[in-house]
Amino acid sequence: MNEAHLALCASPEWARLVEEELLPWVLEDHDLGDDVLEVGPGPGLTTDILRRRAARVTAAELDTVLAGKLAARLAGSNVGVLVADVTRLPFPAGHFSGAACLTMLHHIPSPALQDRALAELRRVLRPGGVLAGTDGLDTRARRSLHEGDIFVPVGAGTLAGRIRAAGFASARVDVTGDRLRFAGVA
User: Fold this and answer.
1) Distance, CA of 51 to chain centre
2) What is the pLDDT of residues 89-106, one digit of tens each?
């Protein structure tokens, strides 16, 4: 994540948007259960909300610096943080009751790796477990924010099929403005 993007994702403005609008929209029809995996939490503003909704949250972050800061900040809480790649998760099959993938799919460098991540998320979910997520659509402003950064936007028209192809029994994608939300049931 470039510095401007990281600053935005750690800002009080982003925290308000996440808590008041984005996560209520993403999670409104879904209960992630008591043991939730969050992939790509970055600075952890989404983690702060998820940990109030679940008994346990595991945050898997690829960036070692971000993972270290998040682990230090949430030490002693109901959140465990580890450095992990969503395309190769170190958990047994059927481990989690739910998974959250919040504004991070576009940071995975190719559609093939995004599909592998979706398949891994399916693998680590219990039968009936829910994957809930959101991502931004491809806009000029979003491309500008990701300058010098990985930005591989997901297409709203193909994402439900990709989720089903990853092994989910059902999939849903909705678009509002420049954002999409998605869900899959294992």
Assistant:
1) 14
2) 999 999 999 999 999 999
